[in-house]
Amino acid sequence: MNKLLISIVGPTAIGKTSLSIKLAKYFNSEIISADSRQFYKEMTIGTAVPSKEELNAAPHHFIQNKSITDNFNVGDFEREAISKIKELHKKNPVVIMVGGSGLYVKAVAKGLDYFPDVDANIRLQLNKELESKGLKSLQTQLHNLDPQTYKTIAIDNPQRIIRALEICIGTGQPYSSFLTNPKKVRAFKTITIGLNAERSIIYDRINQRVDIMMANGLLDEVESLITHKQLNALNTVGYKELFNYFEGNWSLDFAISEIKKNTRRFAKRQLTWFKKEESIKWFDYETNVSEIISYINSIEE
């Protein structure tokens, strides 16, 4: 068998972890997480880190292996993940990758896009504008300069917005125009499996997951991280809403409803991102794993 990476993608709460473990058991393989929120050891409940039972069911990598204080970005992940895949392929021709962070998945499967250097003062100015006018102002700019990126980017993430804007402003071209560069050649073949469901089902699963997170102690987890709330790792759904609660800006019920709403929006953006990839083979989230295995084996024959 050729060296193979089986990548499992889809919206949050759809069942990617469960499928990855079933496939890892079938192929006697190991799992690489491409979930950019599960890297951090201080964040467990709010990032839906696999349970101890799930982690013990198959070897996992890139789960809580970093600290929120570490400077770790998608380029670092690409290098470390490719090195780990190369190592794992010496033992087994199949490696499983799972995660809903589209940029991180793409970095491993195809490599990162090249962006030209731009004047560092542009980023400084955009950060000042973020402080003085708020995120909405930057979002409006991006919508005007690059509607395509606006539709697919993590629109509530200031760092992502600023990165896209500095390329637009610094080059005079849309950020999205740099996303079509030739991809890197990998030493493995990637088969990408997508899980999906009716939107109402996805939203119900998200709402249930948030309720379970709260019951499992998410409030205490977020409270323990208040002194680090300025870190980029914590500028994420489930944490920033509860920071607003602890700061007295929102009631707890409203903060929870905002977590659910923002997670639903995040799932919609995930699907928009992944639906652009024609190579993804989509399955309903309730599809029996044997059908998915048959598809993978048919591709390899």
Share in β-strands: 5-15%
CATH class bucket of the largest domain: Alpha Beta
Largest sheet: 6 strands, parallel
Tell me, rounded to a whole number, the average pLDDT. Answer: 94
State the order of secondary-structure elements, H for helix, E for strand.
EHEHEHEHHHHHEHHHHEH
Cofactor: Mg(2+)
Site (Interaction with substrate tRNA): 101, 123
InterPro entries: Dimethylallyltransferase (IPR039657), IPT (IPR018022), P-loop_NTPase (IPR027417)
Region (Interaction with substrate tRNA): 35-38, 159-163
List keywords for this structure.
301 residues, alpha/beta, Rossmann fold, Histone, subunit A, 2 domains, six-stranded parallel sheet, 50% helix
Notes on the protein architecture:
The chain is an alpha/beta fold and 301 residues long. The chain has 2 domains: 4-113 and 181-300, P-loop containing nucleotide triphosphate hydrolases (Rossmann fold), CATH 3.40.50; 120-178, Histone, subunit A (Orthogonal Bundle), CATH 1.10.20. Helices cover 50% and strands 9% of the residues. It contains 13 helices and 6 strands. The chain has a 6-stranded parallel β-sheet with strand order 3-2-4-1-5-6, sandwiched between helices. Helix 3 crosses helix 4, helix 5 (120-133) packs across helix 6 (135-145) and helix 9 (199-215) crosses helix 12. It starts with a strand and ends with a helix. Residues 35-38, 159-163 are annotated as: Interaction with substrate tRNA. It catalyses: adenosine(37) in tRNA + dimethylallyl diphosphate = N(6)-dimethylallyladenosine(37) in tRNA + diphosphate.
